[in-house]
Amino acid sequence: MASVRSVLGRFAALLCAVIAAGGCGETTDDSAPAGGAVGSGGSTAGAGSGGASGGSGKSGASGSSGALGSGGSAGPGEPECTKDLDCVLINDCCRCKAMAASAERPVCGDVVCQVGSCEARQTGARTAICNLGRCVLDVSCDASKVTCERLPPQCPAGELPVVDRFCWAGGCVPASQCAGVTDCSQCGPELACVVADSLTDTFHCAAPAPSCPGDRSCACLGPSVCITPFGKCADSTPDRAVHCSCSTC
């Protein structure tokens, strides 16, 4: 029996050695999880890096576009009007003024008066008209038309005497509210002089364009005053005026 046990023991040992050589027996799991962790980690890191890079590119493009939009907002002014219907006459107890119909109306307050300011100030204004892109009163301040012997009224600074046909009407209005003035000298330092060139030149005083108040050249002022039919603009250095010409007038 002892010899049988000995033989069986040797056979079992030999069999176990053969099985172990074929991959049987205890194995370690370190290699498989480690390989999976590396592969998984590499994939995650790569995806994260790519996402961060794409996000940065979108953010930069958006910022650049915003800066360009902001920079393009300034430019030459638009005309206040292109036809008489774009203007309205404000004739209340406080003021006699022509303004754009689309603009916010000024408030006079609880003031009671018998007549409007246009009549009280003897301006002779009856309505508002569109004159070279600006809303003005339908009155002239062109002193060259006066032939009467009457002296002109004394006007406050910035205002001019109104002319009624060939004489003085008796009242005064701001230079920018006149449908025409004698020459550029009447516009003063605050207003721009606009000359309508045709068979007979006419002079006008206009407020500078709000977008470039210090610029009285055609580049800035032209688009808001040289409108059809006086659509061609030319700068004039001697009188510091813009000349709007009409080829069909």
Explain what the structure shows.
By secondary structure, the protein is of the alpha+beta class. It has a domain at 84-245. Helix content is 28%, strand content 21%. The strands form four sheets. The chain has a four-stranded mixed β-sheet with strand order 8-7-10-9. Strands 1-2 form a two-stranded antiparallel sheet. It has a two-stranded antiparallel sheet with strand order 3-4. The longest helix is centred in the first third of the chain and has 41 residues, at 31-71. It starts with a helix and ends with a strand. 26% of the residues are buried.
Attribute tags:
about 250 residues, about 30% helix, disordered N terminus, alpha+beta
User: Beta fraction of the residues?
Assistant: 15-25%
Task: Give me the Rg, rounded.
Answer: 44 Å
Mean pLDDT: 76
Number of DSSP strands?
10
Largest sheet: 4 strands, mixed
Looking at the structure, what is the overall shape? globular
Distance between the termini: 141 Å
Order of helices and strands: HHEEHEEEEEEHEE
Work out the helix count. Answer: 4
The helix/strand class is alpha+beta
